[in-house]
Amino acid sequence: MADDLSFSDFTRGEQLHLVALHARMAKRGLAGTTVDLSDLQKKVRRIEKTAERRKKNGKK
């Protein structure tokens, strides 16, 4: 997660989406050692960027 963001900076929908994405990453990780997680990581980064932009602009 970005350094200056806390979990409360995300909207409820973003929080649920992040939890689901991390669960999917964990499930894929259990499948083996050479698993590609880049697609899920990009989705997480996009959500973090949106929350960071919202926090920077003072919106919730």
Euclidean distance between termini CA atoms: 18 Å
Give the tally of β-strands: 0
State mean pLDDT (0 to 100 scale): 88
Q: What portion of residues belong to β-strands? A: under 5%
Radius of gyration: 13 Å
Q: H/E series, N to C?
A: HH
Q: Which percent bin holds the helix content?
A: 55-70%
Specify the number of helices.
2
User: Can you tell me the overall shape?
Assistant: elongated
Which class best fits the helix and strand makeup?
Answer: mainly alpha
Largest sheet: none
What low-confidence regions span 5 or more consecutive residues with pLDDT below 50? none
Sequence-ordered SSE layout with sheet pairings:
Elements: H1 12-31, H2 38-56
Helix pairs in contact: 1-2
Walk me through the structure:
The structure is a single chain. This protein has 60 residues and is mainly alpha-helical. It is built from two helices and no strands. α1 runs antiparallel to α2. The longest helix is centred in the middle third of the chain and has 20 residues. The protein is elongated, with a radius of gyration of 13 Å.
What are the defining features of this structure?
60 residues; mainly alpha; 65% helix
Short description:
With 60 residues, this protein is mostly helical. The protein has helices at 12-31, 38-56. It contains two helices and no strands.
